[in-house]
Specification:
Length: about 575
């Protein structure tokens, strides 16, 4: 029941015990992995989708068709106990560094376009490590890890080439990106230059075309390649071409119909990329990783059913991700893995596959999981710190509720063994079935069912037995609660200060040629602001519009309608 806790030293032990991954991943170097190092390292293609929910892939869903993804997953290893972060920047930062958010200073929210913030310069990134191992490294798609200085750009953080958007959300055709309703600019970049004149072509098609060009011009037999394909899809705003919507024309819900079309375009893109891998001689020595960055937003047509919650929350629907690995190099394939895995694990795994060594790299939170993937070994991971966010609006908790170990008003979540603990405000926690209120006008079907507000600040679930988080066991298992609170406190002692600076007006695209570009010279010193600031809403008071009031009315109505049906 408490398997995995014995490996963690008690409070006061040496610092290294708080980062067990570096130590425990060593014995997992199998004979197969050692032999693999004697041949050319594999070509690595990492495909990251945006806001794709647990129920938004063919092998989980009954209404979305993804034949390419289904086949690749069926012939590889499906990851059914795999975790990401609930938002874009956090997942990407952990993928690039192999470190939890509390160890990078990016614990809170995302990096907004006007924030003078980016991935910390002192951290070596995954592509930088792969470059050191002799790889040609390329990134295509969404960055969302900051760009206020040139040294924050992808080409300065380990990628030989970059083509994509730097902000978190852009229009699929015009590549316009807005921070708020009025502050907008162009956001498509080729290397460190603005890629003007490329508007009009759907971004997934444009990105796929660039990936195929990279594969066609590189010599597969001469040098291993790493391509990070960070697709904008299926993030809003959804604007799929009509030809992709047509196959879903019988789907009652308009938003779900468009969302399904965008997923189908992703499926087609992956088909074209894998075709290029075969055509140009990469496939036989390649590893293809497919992952979402966080859960879906039901208000935008996505679905995490039957999991609880959505994007931006620490319920399973926000953090349990769709993922699989496909590779001819896998020893045991065509299977489903339920090993506990996390997005930080890709850093040490891929570095070691490339022939690198992470044993001396201090502070990593990820594990080398290649033996788990290839040979069906037991996962070395026994726990995941989902996050500790001291800036998130506080809940109703207290130190007393946390047994003197933890202030339960602080938003935090941790998984140890079978158990998951949440404190503070985890986020909106409804279960949203697909096609809810499908007979209502299209704007209303996504309204989520309220399950009743409980005045509490601490939840405990046995995730293995109850993956949908329907039975809170916090009052029945105070012994487990105590152990997880103690572990949270241990992690918190290793946290670095949160870096969440206020917006910089110099970022305005209107004063930067109409585009989102770096606006601070590399020679300029950092501002002398201290700590972080607390953002109340969006620093402005919004009046409730008539639409907002109507949504509230239908939300309450939906609560009554659905309470006895689900």
């Amino acid at each position: 029941e408490f398997s995995g806790w014995a490996q963690h030293a008690p409070l006061g032990s040496e610092k290294r015990s708080l980062f067990p991954n570096q130590v425990e991943s060593e014995p997992l170097q199998s004979k197969g992995a050692a032999a693999f190092k004697r041949r050319q390292p594999p070509h690595i293609i990492f495909i990251l989708t945006d806001d794709q929910g647990f129920n938004d892939i063919g092998y989980h869903s009954t209404d979305i068709r993804t034949p390419t993804l289904d086949k690749l997953a069926a012939d590889g290893v499906r990851l059914e106990n795999y975790y990401v972060q609930p938002l874009c920047t956090p997942s990407r930062s952990q993928l690039m560094t192999g470190r939890y958010q509390i160890h990078t200073g990016l614990q809170h929210s995302i990096i907004r376009p006007r924030q003078p913030s980016c991935l910390p310069q002192g951290l070596v990134t995954l592509p930088q490590r792969l470059q050191q191992a002799g790889y040609s490294t390329h990134m295509v798609g969404k960055w969302h890890l900051g760009f206020y200085r040139r040294h924050c750009l992808p080409t300065r953080r380990g990628f030989h080439t970059y083509f994509g958007s730097l902000t978190g959300s852009v229009d699929y055709y015009t590549y316009g990106s807005c921070d708020g309703k009025s502050l907008c600019g162009y956001d498509l970049h080729d290397g460190e230059s603005v890629a003007w004149g490329r508007g009009g072509k759907y971004s997934t098609h444009l990105y796929t075309q660039r990936v195929r060009k990279i594969l066609a011009t590189h010599q597969a037999s001469q040098q291993p390649i790493f391509i990070f394909v960070s697709l904008q899809a299926v993030h809003a705003p959804l604007k799929p071409p009509k030809s992709y919507i047509y196959p879903y024309r019988r789907m009652a819900n308009v938003l779900r119909r468009k969302y399904a079309a965008v997923v189908s375009i992703v499926d087609e893109a992956v088909h074209n990329i894998t075709y290029a891998l075969r055509r140009y001689g990469y496939y036989r020595n390649s590893v293809i990783i497919y992952s979402t960055d966080n859960g879906a937003q039901p208000f935008m047509g996505g679905s995490n059913w039957p999991l609880r919650g959505c994007k931006g929350t620490y319920w399973e629907g926000g953090i349990r991700g769709v993922a699989f690995v496909h590779s001819p190099l896998l020893r045991h394939k065509r299977r489903v893995s339920r090993a506990l895995l996390h997005i930080t694990d890709w850093y040490p795994t891929l570095v070691r596959l490339a022939g690198g060594d992470v044993s001396q790299e201090q502070g990593l939170d990820g594990y080398d999981i290649w033996p788990v993937l290839s040979e069906d070994r037991v996962s070395p991971r026994m726990e995941i710190l989902h996050n500790i966010d001291p800036l998130h609006p506080r809940g109703l908790g207290s130190w007393l509720a946390g047994q003197g170990l933890w202030d339960t008003a602080v938003q935090a979540a941790i998984r140890v063994g079978d158990w998951k603990l949440l404190t503070g405000k985890p986020g909106h926690g409804d279960w949203v079935p697909p096609q809810v209120l499908s007979d209502f006008p299209s704007g209303w079907w996504t309204l989520e069912r309220e399950t009743g507000k409980r005045q509490q600040s601490l939840w405990l679930y046995n995730i293995t037995a109850d993956p949908c988080e329907r039975t809170d066991l916090s009052t029945k298992r105070p012994d487990v609660v105590w152990k997880l609170l103690e572990r949270l406190a241990q992690y918190n002692r290793t946290a670095v200060p949160v870096h969440y600076p206020p917006d910089d007006p110099r970022a305005n695209p209107e004063v930067n040629g109409g585009a989102w570009v770096p606006w601070v010279d590399d020679e300029e010193q950092e501002s002398n602001w201290n700590g972080v600031y607390y953002q109340l809403g969006r620093n402005r008071i919004r009046k409730k519009s008539r639409l907002f009031k109507m949504r509230s009315f239908f939300k309450k109505l939906n609560s009554k309608i659905m309470s006895n049906r689900i």
